[in-house]
Design goal:
Layout (H helix, E strand, L loop, with lengths): L3 E9 L3 E8 L5 E7 L8 E7 L2 E6 L6 H7 L6 H20 L31 H5 L6 H16 L9 H14 L8 H9 L10
Antiparallel strand pairs: 1-2, 2-3, 4-5
Helix pairs in contact: 2-4
């Protein structure tokens, strides 16, 4: 922000403030939104460009979920699971209130005492059937992922450990049949499965 002069406040909401600013070197007038810090969200430090490339600088968080489970392969103590999931839910609540769907949960997400949320390549084990089928999706896909993470942290074993996208669907379908409350895949998702060329000749039973 030291490169900009604040000219005034354009608007203010529950999650931040929008400021009218002017670049001190080229006099370009811009709008900058400053978000209030949200517990559980990894913060972005000032970014910079060098030789035409953009570098994003984040605060350093020392450990990820994969490393945590390698240290405790039989599961994380219940009080720590409770803390991690609570912080994760708070972070996702903030995202959803700002109309952001994370959908990219991964075992390499960083965790510490605050269970800060970062963005890494998604792990298929946490992907809901909507994402696997390429169906329209919404905020519930993040809740599905949190449930999968809760289960894995509790005993060290992934809930739906599919080896590919199709195997992931088979694994979920098998589990849904074992849990009578969930039932089989909904008819609209079964129709999408049968009409998707990626799954041509395959069956989910």
């Amino acid at each position: 922000m030291n490169k900009y002069e604040v000219l005034g406040i354009v608007g203010e909401g529950a999650y931040g403030v929008v400021m009218k600013c002017r670049h001190k070197e080229n006099n370009e007038v811009v709008a900058i939104k400053k978000f209030k810090d949200s517990e559980g969200i990894q913060m972005l430090a000032p970014s910079f460009r060098r030789r035409g490339k953009l570098y994003l600088v984040f605060e350093y968080v020392e450990k990820n979920m994969l490393e945590l489970l390698e240290e405790m392969p039989n599961g994380v103590p219940a009080h720590r699971v409770r803390n991690y999931i609570f912080q994760l839910i708070k972070a996702i609540k903030w995202c959803h209130q700002n109309d952001v769907i994370h959908r990219g949960f991964a075992r390499a997400m960083t965790v510490n005492s605050s269970a800060q949320l970062t963005d890494y390549v998604a792990t298929r084990w946490y992907r809901s059937t909507e994402l696997l089928l390429g169906a329209p999706y919404g905020k519930p896909v993040d809740i599905w992922a949190i449930g999968c993470i809760l289960g894995e942290l509790s005993d060290g074993q992934p809930v739906f450990p599919g080896e590919s996208e199709i195997d992931q669907l088979f694994t979920i379908q098998k589990a849904r049949q074992l849990i009578l409350v969930l039932g089989p895949l909904p008819p609209e998702q079964m129709n999408m499965f049968h009409s998707n060329p990626r799954f041509s000749g395959l069956k989910v039973t």
